[in-house]
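Batch manifest, entry 17 of 40.
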Amino acid sequence: MEAQENAALLQYEDQVVGSEVVLEAGRAKWWQRVPWRMIVFGQIISLCTCSTSVVSQMLDNDGVSIPATQCLINYILLAIVFGVVSVYQGTWWSTLRKGWLKYMGIALADTAANYLIVLAFRYTTIASVQLLDCTTVPFVILLSRFVLKQRYGFWALCSVVLTLTGVAVLFFTDSSHTAGSHTNKLAGDALCVASAALYAVSNVSEEYLLQDQSPIQFLALLGLFGMFFSGILSLSIELDALEHTKWTTKTVGLLVGFGVILFVMYACVPLFLRRSSAALLNMSLLTADAYALVFAHFIFAQILSPWIFLALFLTLSGLVLFNVLHRSSHAVSSSPIQAQDSA
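Output type: structure tokens
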């Protein structure tokens, strides 16, 4: 009898130790499921996005408002750099012939989104633009569900809410400092939301096409059609503004800088989408809101609230949780003790 009790006790201790080992392994797997490289990569893209916003604000402060021309520089660089590589690889013409209509549609949405977001700086501030641009996330999740057939569990959606809570903190922090010379903020807000919806269409479509297309082919044709649409907008809408713009060294430098930064961001996005999703990309870009307020403090002398750091923490926390919860495929595994109970 005593031997049986000792054997049962040893079996119980083995179960407890085994469970602790499983829990430790589970914790290790939790950290392994977090794609830290992709999170860092997303923050690099986010900093590029923030930088283009800062440059746009600087141009607007100098009285330069030519959004189509700003974006045209980026599309020209894309068409030349990736077009040359695509031609060298012998894939440019075949890709254009087979999918020109799809690329034209994506370029139209992308060009319109870029134009509207830059135009919004005429009516509102950099902080408001960054905050309202975060509405891209729900648009992307909705489109991903119907176009890419992606499913998001309850807790993954909760992590999205946590991320957006960080944006809400930024919104209330910025609300007392967004007055000033911008008298038609409602128009600027509407432009931001419209741009966010178009960015969602562009990003989800890009993720869909990159499933069987190389980033080089995609960027080459996006640059080609984007250059076409931006050129039409620039010549038809901004010709008078171009004639009256004071072409100082600073203005030219800012325009070129904007185009180069946007080019780097566009070159990085397909690489990100090939390894992740449009939803994660746009959640990563939410941190640009906090970065924008920090830049605004040092460059435009706007007040920097300590709440910004709380907002950044909430946004990054939601981003990490979304990675873990969405990548886990929502599978529920039972522990050894639960398995024995059910046996």
